[in-house]
Amino acid sequence: MKGAGRVKDAPRDQEWLLALLPVFPLVLLVMRLWYASRQDTQTLLLLLQNISPLGLLSSVLLTTVWVLPALILGGRVLGTLYWISTGRSSWLVRTAERLPGWVVGLAVVVGVCAWQLRFLPTLAMLSLAVAGLAVRDRFPHHEGLRGIVCYALPVMVAVISYIVFWPAIGAAFAARDLATSLLLTLPPGLAVLLTGPVPRAPARALTHGIAVAMAVFTPFLVGVVVMKAPILPLMALQLSEKETPRVLVGHLVVSDDEMSTVLGREGVVSFVQNDRIQSKVLCPDPGEVPRTWVNLHGWYVEQSVVSWLAPAPPAAPVDPRCQGRPKD
What strands lie across the sheet with 269-273, from one edge to the other? Predict the structure, then answer.
């Protein structure tokens, strides 16, 4: 993407954009605490006083691990596609140009490790589109290389993808899981269509419309994920009572020598004296309920490569105290 006079000088006096970079994570963190406090100001102040900022930032960082590859690859594909189709520059083209090749390659590696199995065909489609469009842009007169990268390679990858994922595709259709079926079948076949130019007339509306939609909906998607991320350990405290023991299940805010502060699941804050605590146990994270049981040789489509390769410990029986029942 090195056309003469094609890229205009970058607008100046935009240092204020750098000042806005930390604003979005800070807003997410405050909203997460506001959500956890059930919109109660006093509870919010209590959480702000005792929660470590590192724990809050970890939820945002873990979210960006899988969001950034999508933004980088999507921006590179849309910007290069618009330039090849029209030969005109725009903010989208300039953004794609400023993404170095090593950043795109790193985004692919991160996506392979962090994305779920059902999104890997989409990752392969975006990677092939980036490679094909780069060849069209840098080697416009090299017919042999263009035929290999833009046509032969996507077709070969599509055939291999359908062979490898066929058990999961069949299971998804059998379970009537439309979303998983489309994610496993459509991207490999569409890869060959994204390596070439689109008609000049709708090129701007298509590429820039998708880019604007990504820019608008990505913060909302990240916000939804962060709102559900755990920020406090889930504990079950068995308390001594006059008649029968009582179990208090909630998130431990702070604990000192005399008292423990617990935020209940319903948002009620309880202050418990430590001498009343008979026992306590760390409860497992309930996590998200699986939306599909489709798997590929035991690798469920909602699992990432990292979670599939990491040795999973044997499932321990759920402690009755985590279910609100006293333990004898």
Answer: 269-273, 259-264, 246-255, 234-239, 277-282
Single-letter amino acid code for the residue at 327 = K
Q: Please tell me what DSSP assigns to residue 298.
A: T
CA dist 165 and 171 (Å) reads 10
Span 28-57, average pLDDT: 79
- Res. 288: pLDDT tops 60: no
Specify if 105 maps to a domain: yes
Output the CA angle 76-89-68, nearest 5 degrees. 20
- Whether the pLDDT of residue 305 is over 60: the answer is yes
Dihedral of CA atoms 270, 273, 275, 278 in degrees, nearest 10, equals 10
Clarify whether residues 128 and 206 are in a common domain: yes
Alpha-helical regions (H) of the chain: 16-20, 23-36, 41-50, 53-86, 91-97, 101-114, 120-138, 143-147, 153-174, 178-190, 200-228, 305-309
Please give the structure tokens belonging to residue 138.
Answer: 């840098």
Read off the pTM. Answer: 0.78
Residue 13 located in a structural domain: no
Q: What is the CA radius of gyration of the chain?
A: 25
Q: Is residue 313 part of a domain?
A: no
Q: Pick from 198, 228, 258: which residue ends a domain?
A: 228
Q: What is the pLDDT of residues 168-217, one digit of tens each?
A: 999 999 988 898 999 999 999 898 888 888 898 899 999 999 999 998 88
Residues 75 and 211 occupy one common structural domain: yes
Residues 53 and 169 in one domain: yes
Q: In the chain, what percentage of residues exceed pLDDT 70?
A: 86
